[in-house]
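User: Let's play a game. I give you a shape written as C-alpha coordinates, and you guess the letters that built it. Ready? Here's round one.
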Protein backbone atom coordinates (compact mmCIF):
# COMPACT_ATOMS: atom_id res chain seq x y z
CA UNK A 1 0.00 0.00 0.00
CA UNK A 2 2.84 2.40 0.82
CA UNK A 3 4.41 1.76 -2.58
CA UNK A 4 1.09 2.45 -4.30
CA UNK A 5 0.71 5.79 -2.52
CA UNK A 6 4.21 6.80 -3.56
CA UNK A 7 3.15 6.47 -7.18
CA UNK A 8 0.00 8.59 -7.09
CA UNK A 9 0.02 12.37 -7.15
CA UNK A 10 -3.38 12.92 -5.50
CA UNK A 11 -3.56 10.98 -2.25
CA UNK A 12 -6.88 9.69 -0.84
CA UNK A 13 -8.17 11.45 2.26
CA UNK A 14 -9.02 8.20 4.01
CA UNK A 15 -8.26 4.48 3.89
CA UNK A 16 -10.86 2.10 5.33
CA UNK A 17 -9.54 -1.41 5.93
CA UNK A 18 -11.61 -4.44 6.94
CA UNK A 19 -10.09 -6.91 9.37
CA UNK A 20 -11.51 -9.29 12.00
CA UNK A 21 -11.62 -9.77 15.77
CA UNK A 22 -10.11 -13.18 15.06
CA UNK A 23 -6.79 -11.30 15.17
CA UNK A 24 -6.84 -11.86 18.96
CA UNK A 25 -7.11 -15.65 18.82
CA UNK A 26 -8.92 -17.60 21.58
CA UNK A 27 -9.42 -15.49 24.73
CA UNK A 28 -12.20 -17.13 26.75
CA UNK A 29 -14.25 -14.63 28.79
CA UNK A 30 -11.54 -11.96 28.93
CA UNK A 31 -12.97 -8.64 27.72
CA UNK A 32 -11.08 -7.47 24.65
CA UNK A 33 -10.94 -3.84 23.60
CA UNK A 34 -9.04 -2.34 20.69
CA UNK A 35 -5.78 -2.16 22.67
CA UNK A 36 -5.54 -5.91 23.35
CA UNK A 37 -2.51 -7.76 21.91
CA UNK A 38 -2.92 -10.00 18.89
CA UNK A 39 -2.94 -13.79 19.18
CA UNK A 40 -0.25 -16.26 18.21
CA UNK A 41 -2.20 -18.71 16.03
CA UNK A 42 -2.06 -18.83 12.23
CA UNK A 43 -5.18 -16.75 11.57
CA UNK A 44 -3.96 -14.08 13.99
CA UNK A 45 -0.67 -13.80 12.10
CA UNK A 46 -2.54 -13.51 8.79
CA UNK A 47 -4.67 -10.67 10.19
CA UNK A 48 -1.63 -8.89 11.66
CA UNK A 49 0.22 -9.05 8.33
CA UNK A 50 -2.85 -7.72 6.54
CA UNK A 51 -3.21 -4.75 8.90
CA UNK A 52 0.53 -4.04 8.83
CA UNK A 53 0.32 -3.59 5.06
CA UNK A 54 -1.40 -0.23 5.61
CA UNK A 55 0.26 0.82 8.87
CA UNK A 56 2.31 3.68 7.38
CA UNK A 57 -0.31 5.40 5.21
CA UNK A 58 -0.72 8.14 7.82
CA UNK A 59 2.75 9.40 6.88
CA UNK A 60 1.13 10.53 3.61
CA UNK A 61 -1.61 12.43 5.43
CA UNK A 62 -4.15 9.67 4.85
CA UNK A 63 -6.66 9.00 7.62
CA UNK A 64 -6.52 5.25 8.33
CA UNK A 65 -9.46 3.40 9.88
CA UNK A 66 -9.29 -0.35 10.52
CA UNK A 67 -12.57 -2.10 11.35
CA UNK A 68 -12.22 -5.45 13.08
CA UNK A 69 -15.46 -7.24 12.34
CA UNK A 70 -17.20 -9.85 14.42
CA UNK A 71 -19.60 -12.39 12.89
CA UNK A 72 -21.85 -10.30 10.65
CA UNK A 73 -25.46 -11.51 10.83
CA UNK A 74 -27.49 -11.28 7.64
CA UNK A 75 -30.73 -13.01 6.72
CA UNK A 76 -29.48 -14.02 3.29
CA UNK A 77 -25.76 -14.81 3.54
CA UNK A 78 -22.87 -15.55 5.87
CA UNK A 79 -23.09 -17.65 9.02
CA UNK A 80 -26.71 -17.12 10.11
CA UNK A 81 -28.57 -19.08 7.37
CA UNK A 82 -26.31 -22.07 8.00
CA UNK A 83 -26.79 -21.78 11.76
CA UNK A 84 -30.57 -21.67 11.29
CA UNK A 85 -30.74 -24.81 9.17
CA UNK A 86 -30.44 -27.45 11.94
CA UNK A 87 -33.04 -25.58 14.01
CA UNK A 88 -35.52 -25.96 11.15
CA UNK A 89 -35.21 -29.73 11.62
CA UNK A 90 -35.45 -29.56 15.45
CA UNK A 91 -31.74 -30.40 15.75
CA UNK A 92 -30.31 -27.01 16.73
CA UNK A 93 -27.96 -26.20 19.55
CA UNK A 94 -24.69 -24.52 20.50
CA UNK A 95 -21.57 -24.78 18.37
CA UNK A 96 -18.95 -26.96 20.03
CA UNK A 97 -19.07 -26.75 23.85
CA UNK A 98 -20.97 -23.44 23.63
CA UNK A 99 -18.93 -21.60 26.27
CA UNK A 100 -16.99 -19.52 23.74
CA UNK A 101 -18.06 -15.92 23.23
CA UNK A 102 -19.93 -15.03 20.06
CA UNK A 103 -18.95 -11.51 18.86
CA UNK A 104 -21.85 -10.83 16.49
CA UNK A 105 -23.14 -7.69 14.78
CA UNK A 106 -26.26 -7.00 12.71
CA UNK A 107 -25.56 -6.15 9.06
CA UNK A 108 -27.48 -2.89 9.39
CA UNK A 109 -25.22 -1.79 12.25
CA UNK A 110 -22.17 -2.56 10.09
CA UNK A 111 -23.51 -0.23 7.40
CA UNK A 112 -24.41 2.45 9.94
CA UNK A 113 -21.04 2.20 11.71
CA UNK A 114 -19.10 2.50 8.46
CA UNK A 115 -21.11 5.59 7.53
CA UNK A 116 -20.46 7.00 11.01
CA UNK A 117 -16.70 6.46 10.73
CA UNK A 118 -16.59 8.00 7.27
CA UNK A 119 -18.42 11.11 8.48
CA UNK A 120 -16.40 11.59 11.70
CA UNK A 121 -12.98 12.80 10.62
CA UNK A 122 -11.60 12.45 14.14
CA UNK A 123 -12.01 8.67 13.84
CA UNK A 124 -8.63 7.03 13.26
CA UNK A 125 -7.07 3.67 14.04
CA UNK A 126 -8.75 0.42 15.07
CA UNK A 127 -12.46 0.02 15.80
CA UNK A 128 -14.38 -3.12 16.74
CA UNK A 129 -17.56 -3.72 14.80
CA UNK A 130 -19.30 -6.01 17.27
CA UNK A 131 -22.45 -5.73 19.37
CA UNK A 132 -21.84 -4.22 22.84
CA UNK A 133 -22.31 -7.45 24.85
CA UNK A 134 -21.08 -10.64 23.15
CA UNK A 135 -23.06 -13.64 24.51
CA UNK A 136 -21.72 -17.13 24.85
CA UNK A 137 -22.49 -19.33 21.89
CA UNK A 138 -24.92 -21.34 24.03
CA UNK A 139 -26.80 -18.14 24.95
CA UNK A 140 -26.94 -17.18 21.29
CA UNK A 141 -28.27 -20.64 20.36
CA UNK A 142 -31.01 -20.43 23.00
CA UNK A 143 -32.07 -17.01 21.70
CA UNK A 144 -32.11 -18.35 18.15
CA UNK A 145 -34.27 -21.25 19.29
CA UNK A 146 -36.76 -18.89 20.94
CA UNK A 147 -37.04 -16.77 17.80
CA UNK A 148 -37.52 -19.84 15.59
CA UNK A 149 -39.76 -21.57 18.17
CA UNK A 150 -37.45 -24.56 18.15
CA UNK A 151 -35.51 -26.33 20.93
CA UNK A 152 -31.80 -25.66 21.40
CA UNK A 153 -30.57 -28.97 22.71
CA UNK A 154 -28.14 -30.67 20.32
CA UNK A 155 -24.54 -29.35 20.28
CA UNK A 156 -22.90 -29.24 16.86
CA UNK A 157 -19.50 -31.01 17.11
CA UNK A 158 -16.35 -29.28 15.89
CA UNK A 159 -15.76 -31.66 12.96
CA UNK A 160 -19.28 -31.02 11.63
CA UNK A 161 -18.71 -27.27 11.91
CA UNK A 162 -15.55 -27.52 9.84
CA UNK A 163 -17.46 -29.41 7.14
CA UNK A 164 -20.28 -26.86 7.19
CA UNK A 165 -18.38 -23.59 7.59
CA UNK A 166 -14.83 -24.31 6.39
CA UNK A 167 -12.31 -21.77 7.70
CA UNK A 168 -15.09 -19.78 9.36
CA UNK A 169 -15.46 -22.66 11.85
CA UNK A 170 -12.29 -21.55 13.67
CA UNK A 171 -13.82 -18.13 14.33
CA UNK A 172 -17.06 -19.69 15.60
CA UNK A 173 -15.32 -22.25 17.82
CA UNK A 174 -12.70 -19.94 19.36
CA UNK A 175 -14.72 -16.80 19.98
CA UNK A 176 -13.61 -13.47 21.43
CA UNK A 177 -15.30 -11.30 24.03
CA UNK A 178 -14.59 -8.25 21.87
CA UNK A 179 -16.40 -5.03 22.77
CA UNK A 180 -16.79 -1.87 20.61
CA UNK A 181 -15.28 0.48 23.18
CA UNK A 182 -13.80 3.10 20.83
CA UNK A 183 -16.88 3.19 18.60
CA UNK A 184 -19.20 3.82 21.53
CA UNK A 185 -16.83 6.37 23.09
CA UNK A 186 -17.00 8.29 19.82
CA UNK A 187 -20.80 8.40 20.14
CA UNK A 188 -22.08 5.61 17.91
CA UNK A 189 -25.41 4.07 18.94
CA UNK A 190 -26.32 0.54 17.91
CA UNK A 191 -29.74 0.08 16.38
CA UNK A 192 -29.62 -3.66 17.06
CA UNK A 193 -27.54 -4.04 20.20
CA UNK A 194 -29.80 -6.62 21.83
CA UNK A 195 -29.31 -10.15 20.54
CA UNK A 196 -32.85 -11.52 20.45
CA UNK A 197 -34.32 -8.35 18.96
CA UNK A 198 -31.66 -8.45 16.22
CA UNK A 199 -32.48 -12.07 15.41
CA UNK A 200 -36.19 -11.33 15.24
CA UNK A 201 -35.54 -8.46 12.87
CA UNK A 202 -33.34 -10.56 10.60
CA UNK A 203 -35.43 -13.71 10.53
CA UNK A 204 -38.83 -12.04 10.34
CA UNK A 205 -38.14 -8.91 8.29
CA UNK A 206 -34.80 -9.40 6.52
CA UNK A 207 -31.79 -7.06 6.61
CA UNK A 208 -33.63 -3.85 7.51
CA UNK A 209 -31.33 -0.83 7.54
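Assistant: Ready! My guess for every position:
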Amino acid sequence: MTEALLEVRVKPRMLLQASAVGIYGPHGDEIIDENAPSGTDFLSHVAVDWEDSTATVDTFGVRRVVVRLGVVLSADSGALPRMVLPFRFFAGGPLGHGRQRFPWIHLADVANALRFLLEHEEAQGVFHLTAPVPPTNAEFARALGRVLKRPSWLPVPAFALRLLFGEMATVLLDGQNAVPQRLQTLGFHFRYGEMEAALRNLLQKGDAV
